[in-house]
């Protein structure tokens, strides 16, 4: 399921630490949240009081320093807790925190995003207990072989290689012992974080965000639901010419254990070293996969992390991890398509109307239609401007600054907008895919590719024509 290089790297990174045991007790986890909120609240109030005697420039500098201190402590505490705390941090990595000093924002978001790779593995005896309880049998009876060394670990569980009695190579994802209780506590405590998050992002609709996170992260704990998601996606792409989804072994899976087909492939770092043509093809497949899910299946992946796909020896791309998913309503998807059409038509009134209907404008009368259109054109330049474009990390950073930099003409407007809960995972998906394309330095006419999905245009690339042929003949 991962490349050999990735196996070795992850094993080195996962040496046992003092954090191997989850702080799962309700009181202990609540205390960590309370310490963070209480301590920062006092310091924030102190800074505000002291600023009354400072000039405007000095006061702004002190508030930015306080915001940066809060951001750093937030990352530190979430990283120590694993479970929902780490997952909350990952999802928050797509939100613009305007109060953080401009030069530190992207670094802060990168630290939040990296929390998924910060979890150490749990000792095997604890893992064995989870597997045998969940599947009601001994490991030796369930599997012909089982590697006790985990080769991947994340916020909620870790992964082991194994073999079925029929000789199939498989991977076994196992939930950490006690993580369900820890997640439940974290989700209840999330309201404690909202005042801090509002200080970092004044325009954030904290209650709506919290409700969406509770639902999505709560679902991710249920591996039976993840297996259902994976089977749904596998059916959608069965026998696809350039996309592969691992088969689920339902009979060996449970609520806390998920068994899938093992897939050998090159990891992201290996792909980045390949030729430009190979990277372009890889990038186009990634783009097409997530656009197909969203625009043709109304199914959104909230975790398109580069560690969740592999380049197979036959050139296909294998996609992994279907825990953080959301079905988008038909009404919302139609409005999203209408919004894209309005942007492409340079219809400012249409853009404002669709943003309002989708819930981005809490008080629509306060927004200028032309400014909204201009913002969309700049922020979505890579997707809305026709012609070949090679996406670079520098370009990704440049577009990220559109809404997060006080120097941006759209900064004030962005702070007044809200992020609708239903759009949270879709915007996260788009942001992460864009970032991945930047890391690949992938090139394509992204506007032409995108309009196949949100505008019904004919394919303009060889992969597009191959995909269209497969869809016309695939059995559903």
UniProtKB/TrEMBL annotation:
Basic and acidic residues composition bias: residue spans: 1-21
GO MF annotation list: ATP binding; transferase activity
Domain ABC1 atypical kinase-like: 115-353
InterPro entries in the record: ABC1_dom, ADCK3_dom, Atypical_kinase_ADCK, Kinase-like_dom_sf
Coiled coil residues, start to end: none
UniProt-annotated stretches for the region Disordered: 1-27
Annotated keywords: ATP-binding, Nucleotide-binding, Transferase
SUPFAM superfamilies, per database record: Protein kinase-like (PK-like)
Similarity comment: Belongs to the protein kinase superfamily. ADCK protein kinase family.
Protein name listed in UniProt: Unannotated protein
Species, as recorded: freshwater metagenome
């Amino acid at each position: 399921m991962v490349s050999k290089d990735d196996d070795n790297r992850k094993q080195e990174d996962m040496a046992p630490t003092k954090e191997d045991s989850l702080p799962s007790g309700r009181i202990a986890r609540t205390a960590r949240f309370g310490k963070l909120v209480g301590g920062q609240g006092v310091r924030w109030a102190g800074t505000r009081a002291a600023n009354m005697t400072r000039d405007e420039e000095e006061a702004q500098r002190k508030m930015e320093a306080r915001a940066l201190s809060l951001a750093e402590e937030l990352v530190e505490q979430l990283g120590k807790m694993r479970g929902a705390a780490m997952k909350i941090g990952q999802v928050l990595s797509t939100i613009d925190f305007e109060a953080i000093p401009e030069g530190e924002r992207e670094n802060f978001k990168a630290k939040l995003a990296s929390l998924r790779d910060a979890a150490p593995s749990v000792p095997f005896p604890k893992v064995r207990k989870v597997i045998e309880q969940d599947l009601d049998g001994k490991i030796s009876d369930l599997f012909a072989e089982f590697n006790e060394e985990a080769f991947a670990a994340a916020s909620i569980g870790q992964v082991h290689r194994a073999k079925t009695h029929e000789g199939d190579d498989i991977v076994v994802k196992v939930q950490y012992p006690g993580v369900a209780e820890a997640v439940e506590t974290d989700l209840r405590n999330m309201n404690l974080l909202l005042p801090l998050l509002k200080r970092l992002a004044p325009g954030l609709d904290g209650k709506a965000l919290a409700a969406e996170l509770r639902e999505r992260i709560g679902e991710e704990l249920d591996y039976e639901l993840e297996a259902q998601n994976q089977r749904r996606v596998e059916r959608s792409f069965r026998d696809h010419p350039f996309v592969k989804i691992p088969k689920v072994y339902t009979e060996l899976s449970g609520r806390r254990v998920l068994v899938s087909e093992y897939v050998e492939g090159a990891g992201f770092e290996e792909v980045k070293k390949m030729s430009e043509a190979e990277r372009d093809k890889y990038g186009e497949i990634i783009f097409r996969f997530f656009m197909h899910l969203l625009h043709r299946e109304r199914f959104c992946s909230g975790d398109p992390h580069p560690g969740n796909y592999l380049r197979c020896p036959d050139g296909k791309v294998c996609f992994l991890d279907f825990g953080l998913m959301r079905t988008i309503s038909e009404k919302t998807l139609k409005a999203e398509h209408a919004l894209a059409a309005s942007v492409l038509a340079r219809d400012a009134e249409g853009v404002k109307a669709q943003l309002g209907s989708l819930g981005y404008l809490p008080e629509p009368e306060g927004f200028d239609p032309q400014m909204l259109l201009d913002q969309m054109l700049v922020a979505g330049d890579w997707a809305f401007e026709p012609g070949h474009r090679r996406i670079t990390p520098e370009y990704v950073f440049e577009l990220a600054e559109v809404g997060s930099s006080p120097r941006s003409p759209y900064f004030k407007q962005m702070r007044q907008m809200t992020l609708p809960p239903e759009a949270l995972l879709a915007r996260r998906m788009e942001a992460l895919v864009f970032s991945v394309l930047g890391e690949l330095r992938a090139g394509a006419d992204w506007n032409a590719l995108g309009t196949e999905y949100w505008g019904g245009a004919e394919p303009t690339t060889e992969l597009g024509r191959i995909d269209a042929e497969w869809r016309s003949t695939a059995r559903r």
